[in-house]
Amino acid sequence: MNVEQAYKDANALLEGHFLLASGNHSNRYLQSAKVLENPKKASLLTDALASMINNAGIEVDTVCAPALGGVLAGYELARSLNVRSIFVEKKESGMELRRGFEVAKGEKIIICEDIITTGGSALKAAQAIEALGGKVVAFASLANRGFCQRVGGNDTAKSECALPGNVPLFALDDFTFEMFTPDACPMCKEGGTAIKPGSKG
Ligand code: ZN
Q1: pLDDT of 1 over the 80 cut
Q2: What pLDDT is attached to residue 89?
Q3: I want to staple 139 with a disulfide (CB 3.0 to 4.6 A). Which of 105, 108, 158, 169 is the partner?
Q4: 36-179, which class in CATH?
Q5: How remote is the CA of residue 200 from the centroid of ligand 1, in Å?
Q6: pLDDT, tens digit, for every residue of 13-61?
Q7: 116 alpha carbon – ligand 1 mean position (Å)
């Protein structure tokens, strides 16, 4: 599956001058909500992701997504894997299960995001699940921004990656974009202003 083309076709791979959640700037941005707005295409993407997970022999009971960004991808991945779908939500520090969702002791859970940048939200979701006795067996995302190492990918994990090295990350592709601190951003030097397109891309 050509994931970059799927993003381009959905106008989800933006070019411009963007402010990322980390405070850094970039000239490209992945707007995963756009690639997921067509449910049929979304299910093709998560079917491919589910195949990678199944081929690796990962046993899973449930997919858990960090809200809001991961919910659509997590729900579709759960459908592709034919397992339960839950999500965690932000609290003051970290994340928590609400809405009557429960996790059984030893339940095997995949944490699913739309995009893994440094994996900070995914890590918080994993910590919430493990605090309840669940077992995080893998992380999954449609796209990997190249800070963390995915199964089958070429990039090695950078120091910014927050995910634990002993749990596999499955992603459809690596999107390794240049990123600049505001001080060092060439687009700011030319007088531009970075815009925030509404997710963490
Ligand atoms: Zn800039």
Answers
A1: no
A2: 97
A3: 169
A4: alpha beta
A5: 16
A6: 999 999 987 788 999 999 889 999 999 999 999 999 999 999 999 999 9
A7: 22
User: Which residues are close to ligand 1, an ion, with C-beta < 5 A?
Assistant: 25, 185, 187-188, 194
Across 161-193, b (16+ Cβ under 10 Å) vs e yields bbbeeebbbbbbbbbebebbeeeebebbeeeee
CA 31–ligand 1 middle distance (angstroms): 18
Do the beta carbons of residue 63 and residue 112 sit within 8 Å?
yes
| Residue 20 structure tokens | 């990322």
Scan for tokens 């067509």, then name that residue.
38
Contact 65, 113 (CB under 8 A): yes
* Cα of 151 from ligand 1 centre, angstroms: 32
DSSP assignment letter at 181: -
Report, as an integer, the average pLDDT of 154-174: 93
CA of 197 to the centre of ligand 1 (A): 14
Q: How far is the CA of 16 from the centre of ligand 1 (A)?
A: 10
Q: Mean per-residue pLDDT for 124-130?
A: 97
| Domain-wise residue ranges, the chain | 36-179
